[in-house]
Amino acid sequence: MKIRIFGDRKNPAIVLLHGAFCDYGSVMHFAKYLEDDFFLIVPTLDGHYPDSKDYSSAPKQARILNIALQKMEIENLAMIHGTSMGAVVALEMAKHISADNYFFDAGSFFKLAGIAKSIACNKLIKLSGSFKNSSADEILKNRSVLWFCGDEPEKYRDTVESIVKNLGSVTENTIKNIAESCYNYHLPHFDNEITKKFIFHFSDREPAHECKKRLEKKYPLARFSDYSGKNYCGFQTKEPELYAQYLKDIINNSVDM
């Protein structure tokens, strides 16, 4: 794992976790609006950069981050934020690390049956393989990508360019383990007081929105934030400055869910 830091160490700390096939750069479109007020800890997870170990599991990534934060002598965070697969790692971090807020954007908290999980994994392998020799322009025209992006694919260029840069480093074993994290995830148990700090955010047109009922049942005291009329990660991708302000307002306790 590689960890980059931004901002003043004296400011409240935030961890920002990227999604599958990306790296730290895929969150910087909104993170840059947080840098003046917070100390940002932005990892690139295992399996997502050259010469890296394979990504193995969300719990292992959370443990590595816990050790890194201990070495930084950070005992509490203003927020742990995860996007897509990164949201799964963020939830695992809640087992180990104290934070005032835990924000899960488009988290892939699926629990699929065996054959459905296999199909999802095979699709992931096939799709990532088809993109390995493609440019960002070509990927942004792909029908599957357009289904995710909706009518403004150019807004996703930063994310897609991050994927293009990293796909050559992503092994089939990493992809299988990503699928295990996202499609066969056992929701951990937490004390009620911790789950009151959870915010699960979904755009209503993204596939991960289907996880909402499962999460509501498991964590009835958690908060849920819906973003209507947008596709995958629509809020952070299409309105990054407003999204950053939304996160600031949450940290400053000025948002009602």
The name of the CATH superfamily reads Alpha/Beta hydrolase fold, catalytic domain
User: SS-based structural class?
Assistant: alpha/beta
Order of helices and strands: EEHEHEEHEEHHHHHHEHEHH
Quaternary structure type = single chain
Taking all residues together, what is the mean pLDDT? 89
What radius of gyration results from the CA coordinates?
A: 17 Å
Give the strand content.
15-25%
User: Would you identify the CATH architecture?
Assistant: 3-Layer(aba) Sandwich
- The top-level CATH class is Alpha Beta
User: What is the CATH third-level topology name?
Assistant: Rossmann fold
Amino-to-carboxy terminus distance: 34 Å
Largest sheet: 7 strands, mixed
Contiguous uncertain segments of 5+ residues: none
Strands of the widest sheet, in order across it, are 1-3-2-5-7-8-9
Tertiary shape: globular
How many strand elements?
Answer: 9
How many individual helices? 12
General description of the model:
With 257 residues, the protein is of the alpha/beta class. It has helices at 28-31, 58-71, 85-93, 114-131, 136-139, 143-149, 157-166, 172-183, 192-195, 212-218, 234-238, 240-251, and strands at residues 2-6, 13-17, 39-44, 76-77, 79-83, 98-99, 102-105, 198-203, 223-227. The protein has a seven-stranded mixed β-sheet, with helices on one face. Helix 1 links the parallel strand 2 (13-17) and strand 3 (39-44). It starts with a strand and ends in a 6-residue tail after the last helix.
